[in-house]
Structure formats: structure tokens, C-alpha cells
Specification:
This is PucR family transcriptional regulator. Pfam families: GGDEF_2, HTH_30. InterPro entries: CdaR-like_regulators, CdaR_GGDEF, PucR_C-HTH_dom, PucR_C-HTH_sf. Belongs to the CdaR family. The chain is mainly α and about 425 residues long. It has 3 domains: about 160 residues; about 140 residues, Alpha-Beta Plaits; about 90 residues, PucR C-terminal helix-turn-helix domain (Arc Repressor Mutant, subunit A). It has 18 helices and 5 strands. Helix 14 crosses helix 18 and helix 15 crosses helix 17. The two termini are about 60 Å apart.
Length: about 425
């Protein structure tokens, strides 16, 4: 139900008294005509607004009740021109609860315009003389204007209340994802905000905008809408966390590096990064649904903490591209991912690939010296390095990928030593 709104509450300008009084007989005629005026307004609304006829009967009756109350307020105002009255609060209080949810502000203004035109046609002829006719014509215009302003104020107040509630609900969802509280309540809150809980999602993290944050966050939402994505935004101190829906189903990243250039973000997501504050922006991996989004948030936040270790990182940068820095900063998940994505495939393919990679990287990435150390032909080393690239998606001759591969080798050795009881399980 719409809130009780008065001129004192919203700061609206009181209705100005009419310059000339209206006779008691004319006021009585206006009171008697109230029911007919409301019915005429309803008929005009049905004729000129096709959507109005499709409203349920109880909601059309609610509009009729609001119109009748408006006519009664108009007559009361004419009788006591020096008294400021509440223009629409009484009508909205007795209107059906869901009427405001079914009628938009544009539709309400259209109905007010139609009612004002009916008033202009039917009320002034009830005047006793020409002077009263002019008074009534001017009063209808003033009263109609005040009703339109009051309706706009009521809708604005309701929108502000709804927006504040949605913002609190959105913050709870984002906080729940960050903390890993993926229960039914979180899914229900997200659904109340229009989010599809079954949609694939990834988490973006970075610094909150410092220059006009509300406008920047609004621009972020508009950018997301233009590329057909849904977003949930949460500002946690100086940190900005964004849940971004993904158009494709499924959450696993395909093996190997995609066709796009290395370390480059998808162009639509790159546009969203412009609305973050200064500093790195990190993308977590895609997860299958909202319930599993904590894994994306965990990786993204760990990568954000480790991002200073790679000053030249793109913006945004994938959390997976910061695995070496994350492992060095003590992230056990990065340690595990490095071993599983590099060491395990090479071990499964045979020990020669792992030994060749280690000899190549630790020998200064020199092909000839690696071949001599392994007592094989250089072409054999080239073939094995291509196999390493096919299995891991990392190219040993690329400096950045070489760092990832070498860090993975160290992580694998530490894991093997930990299993034998020589070293702790983390880097």
C-alpha cells in the first residue's frame, strides 16, 4: 500500500484558495454530481486506455473509489478555501493494496489527465452564473495539477522505499555469496530481486568507485543491461563485489587456453571494469549457479590480494591468470589448481614430459642446452614442449606461461614432499 503522504511530509505547495467563493447551492449540486462524475471518468478511462479495461474488477473499483474521493476533496476545498487539505492520502489509504503495484506512474498520470478533462467538461456547467463558471474552471485546473503532483510524490516515495529495501536485500545476497552461506534463504532473496538462481555466474571484485559512487554504480548496471547480463552489486568498505550472470549454461572452463589473445578479458566484461575504482579488477571463474558462486568469489578475492605481484596485469584479469602470485601469497586453492592443471596431466602422460619441462625452464629456456642435458635431439625437445602446451594450455616459450609452469613444478615438488612428511602442505 502506498504511504500516507501530506503536503507537510513531502514539502508540496498547498492548494491556493480560489479568488471568489462558490454559493452553497452550487456546492450542493457538486456534491450530488460526485457519483456521476466518477462514473463518467471511469467510462472515459475504459474508452481511451485499452489496458484499463483489462484490469480486474476490484482494481477498477479501486480507481473509481479514488476518483470519488478526489471529487469529494475538490468540493471540500471549494467550501473551505483557506484550509489546506490532504489531496490524495485518504484515497490511497482506502484503495486496494495491490493497486499501486498494478498501475505505473505513467498510467496514473494518464488517468488523472482523463479525470481532469471530464471535470472540466462537467463541473463548470453546474455554476450558477458566469463568475462561478470561471471560478470552477480555474479551480479544476489547479486541483488537477495538485493531484498529479501529489500522485508523483507518492510514487516517488514508494520507489525510494522499494529501492532502499532492494539495496539491503542485494547487499545480503552478495555478502552471503562472499561468506559461503549458500542456503535456501540466499537463493530466495536473489529470486526476489529478479535473479535467476539457476543461471551461471561469475564474481568480479575490485575497489569501489571514489568519484560519485552512486552514478558510477548506476552506469555499471546500465552497461550490464546493455550486454544482456544481470548483476548484483555490493560495496563492502572500499571493496566492490559484483555478481555477473553468464549467458552460457554450465560453469566449467574448457580445457586449454581459449582462442582469444592470452590474458585478455571478454570485451563486455572489460566495459564493466571501467566503472570500478582505481586498481586491479579480478574475475573469478564461472560457476554453474548462485549456490556455487562462493568458489568464484573465493578465487577472485584471493587473486585481488595477490594482484600487486603482477603490476602489468590486464584490467580485468582472470583469477586463474594470477595463480603464481596467489600460490606465493599462501593460497592453498591456487596451490591445488597449479598441481592439478599442470603437474598431474604431465605425470599421467609419462615422466618424460615433466622432466623435459623442468630441464627447459631451469636451464634458462635454452633449447640446445636442454637437449644436451637430456641426451636427446633438439627436435625431440620441441615436440615434447608442444605436448606440454597441448596438455596444460600453457606455452613454455611464453614468459608469463613459463612463470606459471615453473611455479606449478615447485608446487608439485612441495606437495610430494608433504606427502612424504618432509614439508608442510602449503607454500
Amino acid at each position: 500500500m502506498l504511504p500516507d503522504v501530506s503536503h507537510a511530509e513531502v514539502g508540496a505547495t498547498p492548494v491556493r484558495p480560489v479568488p471568489t467563493g462558490v454559493s452553497t447551492a452550487t456546492l450542493r449540486r457538486l456534491e450530488l454530481a460526485a457519483g456521476g462524475l466518477a462514473s463518467a471518468c471511469l467510462a472515459a478511462m475504459e474508452e481511451r486506455q485499452p489496458w484499463f479495461e483489462r484490469l480486474p474488477a476490484d482494481q477498477r473499483a479501486g480507481v473509481l473509489l479514488v476518483t470519488q474521493t478526489g471529487v469529494s476533496n475538490f468540493v471540500a476545498w471549494l467550501g473551505e478555501p483557506s484550509e489546506t487539505i490532504r489531496l490524495t492520502a485518504e484515497a490511497f489509504r482506502i484503495a486496494p493494496r495491490d493497486l499501486a503495484r498494478r498501475l505505473s506512474l505513467r498510467q496514473t498520470v494518464d488517468l488523472v489527465r482523463i479525470a481532469t478533462e471530464v471535470f472540466e467538461q462537467r463541473l463548470p456547467p453546474l455554476a450558477a452564473d458566469e463568475a462561478e463558471y470561471r471560478v470552477l474552471a480555474e479551480a479544476v485546473l489547479r486541483f488537477g495539477r495538485e493531484i498529479a503532483f501529489a500522485a508523483a510524490t507518492v510514487y516517488a516515495s514508494a520507489a525510494e522505499s522499494r529501492g532502499a529495501w532492494d539495496a539491503r536485500l542485494e547487499a545480503l545476497v552478495v555478502d552471503g555469496v562472499v561468506r559461503g552461506d549458500a542456503d535456501d534463504a540466499l537463493v530466495s532473496r536473489a529470486a526476489a530481486l529478479g535473479w535467476d538462481p539457476a543461471a551461471a555466474v561469475r564474481v568480479l571484485v575490485g575497489s569501489a568507485p571514489v568519484d560519485n559512487p552512486p552514478e558510477r554504480l548506476g552506469e555499471l548496471r546500465r552497461h550490464a543491461a546493455r550486454i544482456g547480463r544481470s548483476v548484483l552489486v555490493g560495496v563492502q568498505g572500499s571493496r566492490l563485489v559484483v555478481l555477473l550472470s553468464e549467458p552460457r549454461p554450465g560453469g566449467e572452463r574448457p580445457p586449454g587456453r581459449p582462442e582469444a589473445a592470452p590474458h585478455s578479458a571478454p570485451q563486455p566484461i572489460g566495459r564493466l571494469a571501467e566503472d570500478f575504482g582505481p586498481g586491479p579488477v579480478v574475475m573469478g571463474p564461472v560457476t554453474a549457479n548462485l549456490a556455487g558462486a562462493h568458489a568464484s568469489a573465493r578465487d577472485a578475492l584471493a587473486a585481488l590480494r595477490a594482484a600487486p605481484g603482477w603490476p602489468e596485469a590486464p584490467r580485468p584479469v582472470d583469477a586463474e591468470d594470477l595463480l603464481p602470485e596467489r600460490a606465493m601469497s599462501g593460497d592453498p586453492e591456487a596451490h591445488r589448481q597449479l598441481v592439478e592443471s599442470v603437474v598431474v596431466p604431465l605425470e599421467d602422460a609419462g615422466g618424460e614430459l615433466l622432466r623435459t619441462l623442468a630441464a627447459y625452464l631451469e636451464g634458462g629456456s635454452a633449447l640446445e642446452s636442454c637437449a644436451r642435458a637430456l641426451f636427446v635431439h633438439p627436435n625431440t625437445v620441441r615436440y615434447r614442449l608442444r605436448r606440454v602446451s597441448d596438455l596444460t594450455g600453457r606455452t613454455p616459450t611464453d614468459p608469463r606461461d613459463a612463470l606459471v609452469l615453473r611455479t606449478a613444478l615447485v608446487a608439485g615438488r612441495l606437495q610430494a614432499a608433504a606427502r612424504s612428511g618432509e614439508q608442510p602442505t602449503t607454500l
